[in-house]
Amino acid sequence: MNASLTRIGAIVVKEFKHLIRDPRILLAVLVTPIMQLLLFAYAISFDVRDLSTVVVDQDQTPASRTYLQSYTSSGFFKVVGSVDSVDAIDAVFQSSRARVAVVVPAGFQEAVDRGDKAQVAVYVDGGDPNSARIGQGYAVALNQVAGQKITATWAARQGLDLSQAGRLDVRVRTWYNPDRSSSIFLIPGLVVVIIMIVTVQQTAVTLVRERALGTQEQMTISPLRKVELMVGKLLPWTILAFVDVVLITLMGLTMFEVPLRGSVLVLAVSAALFIFASLGLGLIVSAISPTLETANLIAMMLAFLPAFLLSGFAFPLDSIPLPLQWLSYLFPARHMVDISRAVFLKGAGFAEVSGPLGMLAVYAVVVLALATVLYGKRAR
Amino acid sequence: MTDSQPAVVARGLTRAFGPLTAVADVSLEIPEGGVFGLLGPDGAGKSTLIRMLATVLVPTSGDAEVFGESVTHRPGRVTPRIGYMSQKFAMYPDLTIAENINFFATLRGVGKADRRERSARLLEGMGLAEFAGRQAGRLSGGMKQKLMLASTLMHEPDLLLLDEPTTGVDPVSRREFWRILAGLQREGKTVLVATPYMDEAERCTSIAFMDEGVITQRGTPDQIKALVPGTLFELVSPEPRAALAAAGAVPGVASAHLYGDVVRVLLSGTDAAGVAHACANAGVAVDSLRPVAIDMEAAFAFLAEEGEAA
Q: A85 CB contacts (<8 Å, ≥6 apart)?
C-alpha cells in the first residue's frame, strides 16, 4: 500500500511538472475556459431585444402613428427607418437592415373610428428562425395589447363599460428565472460543457504521449500497476478542473448574476464525480488511440458533440428523437447539467439530485475500470 | 557470481508482425557476466529479440528465461533484475536529468536514500553531475544515452539489455560509453548490447550475428573472425573505384569492398600477384597492396554476403 502510494505520488508530481513547464497546457486549461464562457454566454443568447424593424405607414394618421409608437416604446423592437411600400421590404430584409417590418395600410384610422376590425401586417425575416419566432411572439402580444386599448377607447366613446364583461384572465409566472434570462439558463450548463471539453481533451493525449515517448516501456518493466498510473494521471487534472469549476462559477455569479441557490457541497461532490467520469472518458480514448492525432480527433468528437447537443445545456432534450435521448444518457454531461441547474437555480439538495448523482457515480467507476482494462501494458 | 545459471536462455523465440516474421525460432544461451554483442544489419530482428527479453513485447511463440524466470509467464519476476535501454530516447524531455532519474527509480521501488546516493555516484561517474539540472531534451546525443544508462542502472539490475545505445553518438562519447560498460562487466553484470558498429563488436566477450530473424553465427570475436577463410589484403590506389572493379574480376578473389578510400580484397589464397596484375592491365595505379589481419568489419561483410548467397 505504501509503495503503491509512493508510485502514485511520483506520477502526480511528474504530471504537475509537465503542466508547469508547458505554458500551452496551462493556457488551455485556465484561460480557454474563461474565453469559452464569455464567448458562449454572449454568443448563444436566446434573449432577443432591439429587433431591427422598419415601418410602412400608408395611413399617416394619429391612430397609425400611436400604433407604431407602441413598437418603439416596447424595447423589443428598434425602429430603424421607414419605407414607402410593401415591395421595398424585400430589399430591406435582403440587406439585413431589418428583420421585422410593420405595415399599416391606408384606412386604419377610419376602420378604428368605425369600430371595424382594423388590419395591420407584420413581416418577419425567417432567415434567422430564433429571432423570427420571438419577433412574431412579441408582435402578437403587442397587437393584443394595442387591440385592447383601441377597443377600450372605442367603447368609452360609445358610452359602453366593458370592465364588467366576462374575460378570462390568464397570468403566467416563470419560476427560478423570472426574467427568462438566457444567461441564467445557460451558464449552469455551460460550466459542464466547458469542463467536459477541457478534461476529455487533456487526458485523451496523456497515455498516447507516454507511448510515443517510449516512457511507457519503462513503466511496463517497473512494478507500477495500471490502476496506479490511471489514478496518478487523474489527480492533477481533477485539481485543475476544480479550479475551472470555481473560476466559471465565480464569473457566472458576479458577471452574469446567476444565482447559486443550492449548497456548494452538493455542487462540489457532483462536480468531482463528473470530472472523474470525463477524465476517465479521456483515458479510454488515450488507451485505445494509436496516435496523438487520432486521440485528439476522437476526444474532440466525444467532448464537443455530446456536450453540445446531448447535454441539454442549450437545446431541450425532450424534443430530440428518442434514440438520441437514450444516447444522451450515455454521456456524463447530461446528468451533470441536470444537477447543475437544479443546484444553481432551484436550490436542490442531495435528495433532489440523487438520481443523476448516482448515475454519475456509476459512470465514473465504470469508465475508470474500462480505461484500466483497455490500456495494454505489454505490446501484443 | 557463480556460473551455474545462465543469464538468458531463449528457446524457439519467435515474433511475427502480421505477415513479417521479425524473429524466427531463436534459441540462445547467454552466460552470466560478460558483454554479449548482438550484431546484424538493420531489420535483422535485434530490437525485437531484445524487447521480448525485456518483457515489453510478447512473443508469438517460444519462451525465454531470464535468470530462470520465464518472460512470458512471470514477467514481474524478470523485470526487477533487468535494465532495458530502448533504441529510442525514452525520457521526458521537459524534465531535468535529476528529475528523470528520480522518477523512474521511484517507480522501480528504489528508496529515497538509495536514490540520492546512487544518482550522485552514477551522474558523477558519467560526467553528468554538473548537468543534473538541465532538461533532458536539451542534452547532446551522447549525454542523452548516458542519462538513459544511468537511469537503467538505478535499481542495480543484473542484466542490462541495451538496444543500439551508441547509435548516432560521436566517437569520443562512444568510447566513453564502452568504458562504462567495461566497468559494469567488471562488477559482474551481464550486458547484452545490440550494435551496428564493428569496432564495438571487437570489445564484446561474445557475439552473435543475426540476419533476417535468425542467429547465423555465434562465438567470441576471434572465433567469428576465424570463420572468414583466406587472407585479407588492403589495396591503396588513387583511383579506388577503378581498382575495386579490376580486383573483383580476378579469379581467387572471394570478395572485394571499398572501406573508406581503401579497397579490401579477400583472397582464398595468400598470393595477391593476380590482383596487382589486373590493376596494371586496367591501367590503375597501385600505391600499396599488403595483407592485414581480418577484423570484425571484414567478418561482418563476409557473413552478410554468405547470408545473401544462402
A: A56
pLDDT tens per residue, range A100-114: 888 888 888 888 787
Give pairs for B239-247: CB < 8 Å, separation 24+.
Answer: B239/B284, B239/B285, B242/B282, B242/B284, B243/B279, B243/B284, B243/B286, B245/B282, B246/B275, B246/B278, B246/B279, B246/B281, B246/B282, B246/B284, B247/B275, B247/B278, B247/B279
Contact A340/A259 with Cβ under 8 angstroms? Answer: no
Q: Which domains does chain A have, with CATH numbers?
A: 2-44+181-374 (no CATH), 51-158 (3.40.1710.10)
For the cut 90, the answer to whether the pLDDT of residue A33 exceeds it is no
A248-265: b (≥16 Cβ within 10 Å) or e: bbebbeeebebebebeee
Indicate if the pLDDT at residue A177 is higher than 70: no
Contact of B290 with B234, CB cutoff 8 Å: yes
Per-residue pLDDT band for A46 (boundaries 50, 70, 90) equals: low
**List of chain B residues whose C-beta atoms are within 8 Å of the C-beta of residue A17:** 94-95, 99
Beta-carbon contacts of residue B9 (< 8 Å; ≥ 6 apart): B28, B29, B30, B64, B65
Q: Does B48 touch chain A (CB under 8 A)?
A: no
Partner A contacted by B15 (CB < 8 A): no
Q: Is the pLDDT of residue A358 over 90?
A: yes
**Mean pLDDT, chain A, whole residue set:** 83
Residues 130-169 of B with CB under 8 A from A: 135, 151
Domain boundaries, chain B: 8-225, 229-293
Mean pLDDT of chain B: 90
Q: Chain A contacts of B99, Cβ < 8 Å?
A: 14, 17
The pLDDT > 70 percentage for chain A reads: 90
Q: Is B300 on the interface with A (CB under 8 A)?
A: no
Q: How far is B252 from chain A (nearest CA, A)?
A: 49
pLDDT tens digits along A180-233 = 666 777 888 888 888 888 888 888 888 899 999 999 999 999 999 988 999 999
Are B106 and A215 a contacting pair at CB < 8 A?
A: no
Residues of A in contact with B89 (CB under 8 A): 214
Q: Do B107 and A379 touch (CB under 8 A)?
A: no
- Nearest neighbour of A17 by CB, restricted to B55, B95, B151: B95
Tell me the per-residue pLDDT of B142-151, one tens digit each, with 9 for 90 and over: 899 999 999 9
Class of the CATH domain delimited by B229-293: alpha beta
Q: Closest Cα to residue B212, out of B96, B47, B45, B18?
A: B45
Q: Which fold has domain B8-225?
A: Rossmann fold (3.40.50)
Q: What is the pLDDT of residues A307-332, one digit of tens each?
A: 777 888 777 777 778 888 888 888 88
Residue type, B164: E
pLDDT at residue B76, as a whole number: 92
- Residue ranges of chain A whose CB lies within 8 Å of a chain B CB: 3, 6-7, 10, 13-14, 17-18, 21-22, 213-215, 217-224, 378-380
